[in-house]
Design a protein that fits this description.
alpha/beta, Rossmann fold, Rna Polymerase Sigma Factor, Chain: A, 7-stranded mixed sheet, about 40% helix, homoserine O-acetyltransferase activity, methionine biosynthesis, EC 2.3.1.31, transferase
């Protein structure tokens, strides 16, 4: 329970007269509501999802630090909750999305799309509101967060908890731990091939100061500059909670409730959400289409391989309209 909740969101483009051009994007762990900034090549002018033709909505998830209520949000005269922020689930995030949808008066969503944690939200929402969504696009995600994914998240949280400043309950608490957590996470987001292609040493005589080391430090510093440790803990725990079958008999039964025409995209080199998890989704979502992106970027391919995503989207929509 929260005393109150604020939802920050962006919209782009114009709702047409028929009110049938809505595209709703769900963001992943550390992203924000400005989908044009973090999914360029897929969203934006002259992209597949173009504000000139679509009314695009993206909401910052509850628990985040980009405008929606989160661990650093004060409540009236009360201080922020920091590490005492209550446990969130993916279903709580969807409850906030649904409240915003009703607030905006959107009775029908043409396309709901999300990758990773965003895909988990999209699946859960499409199960809860099967008549609202016409098309569902999920990338690099799953029906239940895996033991492997939970273990990665726990390793990151342990790094944060090992930073004694985390327990100070200040906005800058746990920053060194967050930096280490990001370095751990990157190993699950990328691949052996990706590091080999970008961080290989040209100097055969080097014995310290490796590019791969400085890259991990650089990425950790980047996240610390724009995020906080308390939000990272809250959102990673929410991801762990993801299980569409909870309280619904089984995962297969839950996925069977989806009525949206669905495209599921996997990535060949994704070690965090391996393709067999997306194949499972396509097997149990009625009429779903499955496609796989050949990419060496690992899990991050869902943000990078926008040309491939666009290709599969074009095929999917053609087949949908033909049907």
């Amino acid at each position: 329970m929260l005393p109150q909740a604020r939802i920050a969101y962006h919209t782009y483009g114009t709702l047409n007269a028929a009110r049938d051009n809505v595209v709703w994007a769900c963001h992943a762990l550390t992203a924000n509501a400005d989908v044009l900034s973090w999914w360029p090549g897929l969203f934006g002018p002259s992209c597949h999802f173009d504000p000139a033709t679509h009314f695009i909505v993206c909401a910052n998830i509850v628990g985040s630090c980009y405008g929606s209520t989160g661990p650093l949000t004060p409540f009236n005269a009360e201080p922020a909750l920091y590490q005492d922020f209550p446990l969130l689930t993916v279903r709580d995030m969807v409850t906030a999305h649904e409240a915003l949808r009703l607030h905006l008066g959107l009775t029908q969503i043409h396309t709901l799309i999300g990758g990773s944690l965003g895909g988990q939200q999209a699946l859960e929402w499409a199960i809860q509101q099967p008549t609202v969504f016409e098309h569902l696009i999920v990338l690099a995600t799953n029906a239940q967060h895996s033991p492997w994914g939970i273990a990665f998240n726990e390793a990151q949280r342990l790094a944060i908890f090992a930073d004694p400043t985390y327990h100070s309950a200040t906005p800058t608490g746990g920053q060194n731990g967050l930096k280490a957590a990001r370095a751990i996470a990157l190993l699950s987001y990328r691949s052996y091939e990706a590091y080999g292609n970008t961080q290989q040493e040209p100097d055969e005589n080097k014995i310290t100061g490796f590019r791969a080391s400085t890259y991990q430090q650089y990425q950790g510093d980047k996240l610390v500059a724009r995020f906080n440790a308390y939000t990272y803990v809250a959102l990673s725990r929410a991801m762990d909670s993801h299980n569409v079958g909870r309280g619904r008999g089984s995962i297969a039964a839950a996925l069977g409730q989806i009525r949206a025409r669905t495209l599921v995209l996997g990535i060949t080199s994704d070690v965090l959400f391996p393709p067999h998890e997306q194949q499972f989704l396509a097997r149990y979502i009625p009429g779903a289409m499955y496609a796989e992106m050949d990419s060496g970027f690992g899990h991050d391919g869902f943000l990078i391989e926008t040309a491939q995503i666009t290709h599969f989207l074009e095929r999917f929509y053609v087949q949908t309209f033909a049907h």
